[in-house]
Write a structure and sequence with these properties.
Layout lengths: L3 H6 L7 E4 L3 E5 L7 E7 L14 H17 L6 E4 L15 E5 L9
Antiparallel strand pairs: 1-2, 2-3, 3-5, 4-5
Bound molecules: guanosine-5'-monophosphate.
Guanosine-5'-monophosphate binds next to loops.
Length: 112
């Protein structure tokens, strides 16, 4: 069964796409929690952060670097937050890893 995000990657479900390359897709979150809120998703459907392997280290770095570059392109140079939720206790709802990037409002700590 394809994940929701694989369906977005395959253009079976529409999304506001920001960026794509051979490894990742970035698109705006459907329920934004900040003026800027987008997701960076690997095309490889890794279920959770717990499922990352040694072989995925370059991909994990690419996700983070893509998040930084797009955050700056979208006007978040004064600050932004990246979040990766892992499993139910971590608040994950879509089981295809993704990095949230939130910006253009003041963030607070601790998160909810
Ligand atoms: P999680 O809770 O797994 O960390 O994050 C999943 C995110 O995916 C949520 O912020 C949610 O709003 C977003 N999301 C869920 N369904 C869709 C969808 O169909 N399209 C888009 N663009 N985002 C979605």
């Amino acid at each position: 069964m394809d994940t929701l995000f694989t369906k977005i990657i395959n253009r079976e479900i529409p999304a506001k796409i920001i960026y794509e390359d051979d490894q990742v897709l970035a698109f705006h979150d459907i329920a934004p929690q900040a003026p800027v809120h987008f997701l960076v998703v690997p095309k490889k459907p890794v279920r959770t952060l717990n499922d990352l392997t040694e072989d995925d280290k370059a991909l994990a770095g690419h996700i983070l670097f893509t998040a930084q570059r797009l955050a700056l392109e979208l006007g978040c140079e004064e600050g932004f937050r990246v979040v990766m939720n892992c499993n139910d206790l971590g608040g994950q709802t879509v089981y295809h890893i993704h990095m949230h990037v939130l910006g253009q409002r003041q963030m607070h700590w601790p998160p909810g």
